[in-house]
Amino acid sequence: MRTFEVPAAGCKMLTTETAQQRHLLQGIGGIDFHSAETDLAQRVKSLVASVQLPDEAAMSKHTYKHRCVQLLRKVGR
Asked: With 0-12 CB in 10 A as exposed, 13-18 as middle and 19+ as buried, what is 29?
């Protein structure tokens, strides 16, 4: 996904810390930055621990695969 799509979808995001990312994403909640591989592992563990995953059945209609199947049905394939 593109950088701006993740927070727009209401998801948490972990990204490389750069001046450009800090500027682009300033003021948007749910975003965390990492600057080194060792920092990345710690940040991922923290992020995973803080996320409540939705029920899989409830999310099944919100996948790229589901959307593609719907599109193909609409165009008759």
From this structure: exposed
pLDDT of residue 77: 60
Element (H, E) at 47: helix 37-50
> What are the structural domain ranges in the chain?
5-74
pLDDT digits (tens, 9 = 90+) for 6-41: 777 777 788 888 898 888 888 888 888 888 877 888
SS3 10: coil
For residue 33, give both structure tokens.
């930055």
12 burial level (CB within 10 Å; 0-12, 13-18, 19+): middle
Specify the pTM: 0.50
CB atoms within 10 A of CB 43: 16
Strands (E), the chain: 13-16, 31-34
